[in-house]
Structures are given as structure tokens and as C-alpha cells.
Amino acid sequence: MEFEKVIELLNELTEAKENNELEWKSIRNTSYETNWNGEDIIIDRHNNVDKDSLEIYIRIGQFEAEYLSSTDEFSFLSNYIDSI
After folding, report:
1. pLDDT average per 10 residues of sequence, the chain (84 residues)
2. Sign of the Cα pseudo-torsion (26, 31, 35, 37, in order)
């Protein structure tokens, strides 16, 4: 999945949350999950001790990706997590 599609989906989820059509469940401090259109969605910001770095893991259905703190994707997703 291209990251532009991830952004589109997260914008859709933001709108759904604002319209009380969606709720995020907190798994841990900065880890959340929800289900949208039959797909489980997980977004998780955490320390990766093996890489000695912060990273964000995202899963949307079968799509999975990790983004290190040095990437633009990490910055976008980190801001998204903070808005949840």
C-alpha cells in the first residue's frame, strides 16, 4: 500500500471519529486499534531496542509497515497518534 493511501484512510478515520462513527481502543500508552470496513487497524509508536530508535508500526488488514523516526511517514503518523 502506498503511503498516500494510508494518509487517505487515516483522514477518513478522522472524519468518522469526529462524526462518532468510529472509536479507537487504547492497547497501550501510544498503541491503538480499531476496525473499519471489516479491516483491523493497529497503529503503534514504540521504542525498538534492537535498532535503538523510535518507530511506528501500522497494520491495515493484511498491509504492515514500520517507519523509523527519521522518516516523514513517522512524523505524520506520530502526529496522528497524538490526535487520537
Report:
1. 96 97 94 96 94 94 96 97 95
2. positive
